[in-house]
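fold-stage: in
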Amino acid sequence: MTNTSPTPPTPPKSPASSASSRSPISRFPHLRQDFAASLVVFLVALPLCVGVAVASGVPAELGLITGIVGGIVTGLMRGSSLQVSGPAAGLTVLVFEAVREFGLPALGVIVLATGALQILMGALKLGRYFRAISVSVVEGMLAGIGLVLIAGQLYAMAGTEAPASGVAKLVELPGALVDSLGSTRALASLGLGAATIAVLVLWKRMPSRVRSVPGPLAAVGLATLAALVFSMPVATVEVKGLLDSVQPPPLSAFGDLLGLGLLGTVVAFTLIASAESLFSAAAVDRMHGGPRTAYDKELVAQGAGNALCGLLGALPMTAVIVRSAANVQAGARTKASRVLHGVWLLLFAALLPGALAYIPIPALAGILVYSGAKLIPVGQIVSLWRGHRGEALILVVTALSIVAVSMFEGVLIGLALAVAKTAWEASHIRLDVIDKGAGPVQAHLSGNATFLRLPKILDSLEALPQDRPVELDLSGLHHLDHACRTALESWAERHSAVGTEPVRMTAEPARPAAG
């Protein structure tokens, strides 16, 4: 007789066993895209990290450390999922000036204090307010940085030392280039730098297969190969080793924070790094359809990265639009791509530090000259001049102020101009007078009555006939400040003092509530 007893049912898998049986692909569905994108970002970031460090006057490894922290630490934190952080060309000039004035040990203190301020601002939810900074000021800041960066790196391309001030860099540049024509070493250096720039400019016209290699990496690689093959007498990067380059700031350096000069530098680092990072985040958000940036969390992430960089004595970090754009264009889907790019930088710095010693400094200078040129928004200036000349003026004055004075003062001048322009435009006022020849003169004020336009208002009112009654209609005013209110009342008393019928003021804007 056949046994027909039913087969016992298979027990359901527990959640733990189900999760453990999942493949890495199912748990990380975008791993393939993120892995490929991380390699592209690594290849873009490597020469830029080294170039920014050398141009800042610090060991090349410090730029790699900042790139590693920006990838692994800041990359793991919340904020912007596809934005990539690291050392930026936009801070090169400021870092160079800080190291020259306060010394390399103080750099760690400045960067640490910058990070602490960024964390505080993020915790206070001030990140979103950076979007209120005038775009013209930011563009002018970047243009000024670009001008100083180009001038300084042209000296590096020629193998000569650059003057300290921005004005001197520009004024003495023609003479320095003419002098270099009489030196074989300087000509070789200039030629290699110029060839690097040419590769970067022409790289976009190469076939798509060739362009799979990032332009900066190709330019540096070709320059390094040329220098080796032809035994060119050019300076190369000095290598100290990753661990030897890590120099935490000594406790004695923190006493410098009591000085106004160092505090001003910290404020400049904080404002510029934060503005550049958050403007970059807004630009990256327009490039993809994924989650939007949480500005306050991104500011905290940038602050945490800068605080760690400061403890390690490394360069400050910002979000970098070049690396971020490369990340998005390479198909990155999650923050894993930027974290992995930091891992690749760490492996390179740990396993192949000697490779840096073959990189010619003129090639790195050429990359930064090219990067500096991209910071100057020539097209933006032309379009602003056609439609918004006031904004164009703010941009140009900010840039020139940075060149002529310094980064911090230049930005403050730009901000002051932007505030003054906004206040002037907000105080627009119009006075319309209707005089029918008989009866009272009717005067209508419209717009915003502020102390900035008070002389114009009083001149127009005092020009009204003294022997005629006046009806002053204030219904068109959006705002009437205390200075204007008091001045109008005084004018009304003076106008009525000669025996004319008292001035009638109608529809006055409501006074703000007390307390």
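fold-stage: in (second)
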Amino acid sequence: MSVDDRPTLSAPDDDPWLWLEEIEGKQALDFVTRQNSLTLDAFGGAAFARDRDILAAIYDRPDNIPYVSRRGTELHNLWKDATNPRGLWRKTSLAEFRKPHPTWEIMLDVDQLAAREGEDWLLSGITTQPGSARAILGLSRGGSDAVTLREFDLDTKSFVADGFALSEAKGGADWLDADTLLLSSAHGEGMATSSGYSRTVRLWRRGQPVDQAQVIIETTADHMAISGIVDDTAAAPRSWIVDQIDFFNHALWLRDADGATTKLDLPTGIWLQAHGDWFAMKLREAWSIEGKTYAADTVLGMSLSAFLAGSRDFAVLFEPEPRRALQGLFWTGGKLVLSILDELQPQFEICTPSATGWSRASLGGLPQIGVVDIWPLDRHPSESNGDLLANVQDPLTPPSLLLIERGVASPTVLKQAPKTFNADGLVVTQHEAISTDGERIPYVQTGPAGETGDAPVYMSAYGGFAHSVKPYYNPSLGKLWLERGGTTVQANLRGGGEFGTRWHDAGRLAGKKLSHDDFAAVAADLVRRGVTTAKRIAAQGGSNGGILITNMLVRYPERFGALFCTIPLIDMRRYTKLLAGASWIAEYGDPDKPEEWDWLKSYSAYHNVKAGQPYPPILIATTRRDDRVHPGHARKMAAKLQAMGYEAWFYEPEAGGHGYGKDNKERAGFEVIGFRFLKDKIGWKDEG
């Protein structure tokens, strides 16, 4: 009997499932309703409700760490729990925050706001100005990227009547002064790029209709976005204009207090951070200037005024090594902090500029294993005295929030997250698999000591956009997988940023297929080492990781027992035409160019599905309010697999955005439906 397997590689545009791309289409929503019912009937029930409530209670614990940012002298926090599922925006002082049970002052109750206005509001952004009591709030419906902007008075704790207000669009605004915003929003006719982001930066004055706001700079529709960022660290007011050409390249302009703009003569593939008269940048590609060549991933620094005057006498602040790479850089209190991974171990260096050169020091008192993340306590660099926050954890040790005062004092513990699962008898080990081309692929394994040959394994990875995967403490996996006897594995695939640009470039564009080979190599290594068998390996990946999981389905089905694919990209023929898809061409390639479709089609699982294959069971889940990765990817893949007779399940809650839910209970439910499915399909009779 013939099977309709359209679209195919030979006819990639003959797609009978296009109607599922109509997000709110009646036929599409009927499909979603029917599929949700089938999935919940099969994997819901009492065990699902029990585990969902266990997990939601962990996310809602009153002793979880309230992460803060300082504005002026106040620490601000957005807090969610069972009583406040949408969240409380609240504030306190540092002295109060140090106490075991701080007293908080409520700025905005988002649940009350949503109920009062009859909207599915979440608070997704807060933009303030030093010394001002006004803020611009970004309100998101159901977790979507698009936001409604509204002016808020921090003193009266209320929205400003006749204040700045903008209806839903992607983008935001920054305060130029008390009565003027730099608006970088896709709102308005012709104001969006093909990626759906802002095509202009506008000067929006108080009381002025937004369609009359002056366009001070614009980009072309084929660029990803353009934005304006106010910089208050210099002697005179200034702003940076960032023309995001693609995901990894941008042009920079400096706008002075008089409105004059100067384009910086710099490579486009850089990370640049400026503070006062100094700037530092990390190169993405090798750069030759005035007889000197600097390698990719080198960090250079110099005086901004000297650069604008024509000098190119850079100081070298960091040089990469094959497995030592910069992860980030930022300024605080006039000092530059470099975040580094050296053989996946965290290190931090502080560089201080002066007229006589740059001094360097290592940031001490922090562990050199596990995960250490560091960021400025102050929201506005101009208000910073150098205070840093550090988050320290590993897969079996819950996070500690540390304060490093002035960037030099010994770290002190501000808050300690609770232990949310029993880790007795569990160990964390590091391993390497050998991929198809001989490259060593690191992975972290957490679970019982010793190999049983039959461990229920939960594998995950990402492998894209130079994003580094780190072994964080994971309450959901800890409670519902590790504590019950399972093992988890997290792989560092090419396409990530763990070892710098060369690691990322090896796993993007045509190399994305190689990134997928890396994941399959780790699965095979678990079997080779005697940890488990292929049928006991459950794998999960989301977003870019959704391409990964569907390629495991069609390219390496024999290495997995079950797959969970979340908020995914899958259809690589049409991805650039769906929502923000065009913004990712620099990562994947352009399917409208025949030479690039040649490699894209090799990992477009939607086109590579074949009849009669030994595919493992798969659950594909998305959210309807995801306005970044179109839910049509997940819908179409599930429908095609089902029509071809494969065991493919589908789940799509209404809210969540590019995530797993708008509140802790929804997030827990999304995760648990995946856990219940995976456990069932790998034959793990887990009764909790």
